[in-house]
Write a structure and sequence with these properties.
With 92 residues, this protein is α+β, with helices and mostly antiparallel strands. Helix content is 30%, strand content 39%. The protein contains 2 helices and 6 strands; from the N terminus they run βαβββββα. The relative contact order is 0.28.
Length: 92
């Protein structure tokens, strides 16, 4: 069974602008060592990772935050890619 998670990440206006700039650039090669195999740009950015995991980043249309959606086979992988996704969103 797949594991899923949604994380709301609140950002300042400046941090949100920086996040938009990162999304406009080339996609990362990997998240937490899981290679990005493809990217879907409908309703945000969905990074499809090797092994079937994925993460989707999209700005909320109603609140000053970015929503991070995750899916993986195990809680451990979910935690790994979740931390890496949040670091990418925050620019860390």
């Amino acid at each position: 069974p797949c594991r899923t998670r949604r994380v709301n990440i609140h950002l300042t206006d400046r941090a949100q602008a920086a996040f938009r700039e990162r999304l406009a650039g080339p996609p990362p090669d990997s998240f937490a060592g899981h290679k990005v195999e493809d990217m879907v740009t409908i309703d945000g950015r969905k990074f499809l990772l090797e092994g079937g995991s994925w993460l989707l980043m999209r700005e909320s249309g109603t609140e000053p935050l970015v929503r991070l959606y995750l899916e993986a086979e195990t809680d451990a992988v979910l935690d790994e890619i979740g931390k890496a996704g949040e670091a990418f969103i925050r620019g860390a």
